[in-house]
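Reading group handout, session on sequence-to-structure problems. Before we discuss, look at one worked example. The prompt was deliberately terse, the way you'd type it at a terminal:

> structure Bicarbonate transport system permease protein CmpB

The input record follows.
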Amino acid sequence: MATGPAGTAPASGGGLAAAAVLSSSIAALSALALHWTLPSRQSPVPTRLYPILLEGLLAVSIAVAVVHWAWPRLRPWARHHAPLMAGGIVALVIWDLVTLKLALMPLPYFPGPDMVFQGMWDDRGMLFESTYHSLILLFTGYFAGVAAGLVSGILIGWFRNVRYWGMPVMKVVGPIPATAYIPLVMALFSNAFVSGSALIAMAVWFPMTMLTASGIANVPVSYLDVARTLGAGRRYLIFRVAIPAAMPSIFLGLFMGLGASFLTLIAAETVGVKAGLGWYLKWQQGYVEYAKVYAALIIMAAFFSGLMTLLFAVRDRVLGWQKGVIRW
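And the output record:
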């Protein structure tokens, strides 16, 4: 298939565009046919959730094809997303074949998609509650780390004396993984939620501080000189010139901090909290319920991907002036 530049829909003619749009429908029909016709060697007990999911994907793919045919303005969107949906369905087919249908990977460590989705449905209430608690813990720690990183980054980036004393401290303390501080935070905070939030905040604080300080320190001198010529004071220079000019670096810190917070969240939920996706995953692993372990992993992937997509949307809105200048 011919492809366009990165970040754009595949380049296509009439026939190739039709094949791209119909690829998800063909993949969903093939997945249903394989699931219904091949015998199951891993588990003889059939479930209905996985076929229902495939039928839902087939309905969505047909809707995308209809959108492509009926609304010309949405054709690029349909051509871009239909092959991605087809790729996701093919991944489900491969998972179904190597586990449930051919039993190439043994139970209980490698359950098929039908068992995983059934486990997700059976524990939906507990998974919803765990996701809610993980979200509260993540947001509390992340925003505390962002606030601390912004303040320390601005101080280190703007004031020479603070930079002189602050950078050596950052170079010594910053590279230590936040999970290494688990014994320290457990000794400092008796409350499990507070200690988990502190761990996440420490993981976010270091990249946020370094990239904010770098952005502030590298503001073009000409910007500051022009503002000083017009009578700007220190407060105006920091908040109206330096910080807006450093926003690309600040957003890099936000992205890196969010990734670090995901990694630390799972460890933070093992220091005594009573709910959360990391806690649920460890609990089900203890009972060798690997179908529910994979169910928690799928929810984590959707949970983290959704937050990252939200931050990308905020970045696109705040840094809209960079579109066309920097490719993203």
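Points for discussion. First: The mean pLDDT is 85. Second: Residues 124-158 form the longest helix (35 residues).
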